[in-house]
Amino acid sequence: MATAKKAPAKTAAPAKKAAPAKKAAPAAKKAATKAPRKVNAAFLKPMTPSATLAAVIGATPLPRTEVTRKIWEYIKKHKLQDPKAKRNINADAKLKELFGKPTVDMFELTKIVNAHLT
């Protein structure tokens, strides 16, 4: 008769250690009443656009924030945002004159526009 090999005996899993005691939650800090955040006046100052920028947004002086908003309205109205690479703006005739190149990254837009504001 052939003797069968015995499988090694399974060892018991080590006993779990007790979870460390939780620390008490820190005392809630008193909610200090803060003064409202001050808005940078430079963003709200109306700026006069150059002739090339005025062709896109109009000639009336506007704050920088409104200039950016109007440019994005123009871009979306004329569907100039690249459908595959949403970061890129494909320039039409007016924007090509403003940008100086056929395609601009959206992060370059502010730098380019600031050069056309006085």
Please give a structural write-up.
It is built from five helices and two strands; from the N terminus they run αααβαβα. With 118 residues, the chain is mainly α. The model has no long low-confidence stretch (mean pLDDT 84). The protein has a two-stranded antiparallel sheet with strand order 1-2. It has a domain at 42-114: MDM2 (Orthogonal Bundle). The radius of gyration is 32 Å and the shape is elongated. The N and C termini lie far apart (104 Å).
Helix and strand topology:
Blueprint: H1 41-44, H2 51-57, H3 64-77, E1 88-90, H4 93-99, E2 103-105, H5 109-114
Antiparallel strand pairs: 1-2
Helix pairs in contact: 2-4
Key structural traits:
118 residues; mainly alpha; MDM2; two-stranded antiparallel sheet; 5% strand
| Radius of gyration of CA atoms, rounded to a whole number | 32 Å
Shape: elongated
Q: Give the CATH level 1 class of the domain at 42-114.
A: Mainly Alpha
* Beta content: 5-15%
Distance between the termini: 104 Å
CATH 4th-level superfamily of the domain at 42-114? SWIB/MDM2 domain
The overall average pLDDT, rounded, is 84
Biggest β-sheet: strands ordered side by side in the sheet? 1-2
Largest sheet: 2 strands, antiparallel
Total strands: 2
The number of helical segments is 5
SSE sequence, one letter per element: HHHEHEH
